[in-house]
Amino acid sequence: ATYARRQGESVMLARGTTLKLERVNDSRCRQGAVCVWAGYISYSFALTSRLGTRNFVLAENMPNAQPTATRDGLTFSLEKLEPPDPPPLNAPAPDYKVSLRVTIAQPAKT
């Protein structure tokens, strides 16, 4: 299934299992700015289940982060960001909406 969430929104994935988009961190170079690096956008999630709460970060171009993660038997993959481009230099942060595909993880082959 694919879920689109804004910062602070949660979704129930199964009975007793919720996923919350805790935070969007956008350090990309804003339109009209002069930057020494392109920056990145990352998404901090909290997965809460009977196993407790597990936090993870997804990002496409951030060091030490990936666009896909597997937690508690589920695989989470980034699909789409709205708006896709960084905001103009002096504009307020946009109301980001991220689409995330959630699938059942394939068991590791032994």
How is the secondary structure organized here?
Layout lengths: L1 E5 L3 E5 L2 E10 L14 E9 L2 E8 L8 E4 L2 E9 L14 E8 L6
Antiparallel strand pairs: 1-8, 2-3, 3-4, 4-5, 6-7, 7-8
Written account of the structure:
The two termini are 27 Å apart. Strand 6 and strand 7 (74-82) form a beta hairpin. The protein has strands at residues 2-6, 10-14, 17-26, 41-49, 52-59, 68-71, 74-82, 97-104. The protein has 110 residues and is mainly β.
Write a concise synopsis of the structure shown:
The chain has no helices and 8 strands. The protein is 0% helix and 53% strand. The mean pLDDT is 90.
Q: What's the β-strand tally?
A: 8
Distance N to C terminus: 27 Å
Cα-based radius of gyration, to the nearest Å: 15 Å
Helix content: under 10%
Q: SSE order, as H and E? A: EEEEEEEE
Low-confidence stretches: none
Beta-sheet strand percentage?
Answer: over 45%
Mean pLDDT: 90
What composes the largest sheet?
4 strands, antiparallel
Order of neighbouring strands in the sheet with most strands: 1-8-7-6
- Structural class from helices and strands? mainly beta
Shape: elongated
Per DSSP, the total helix count is 0
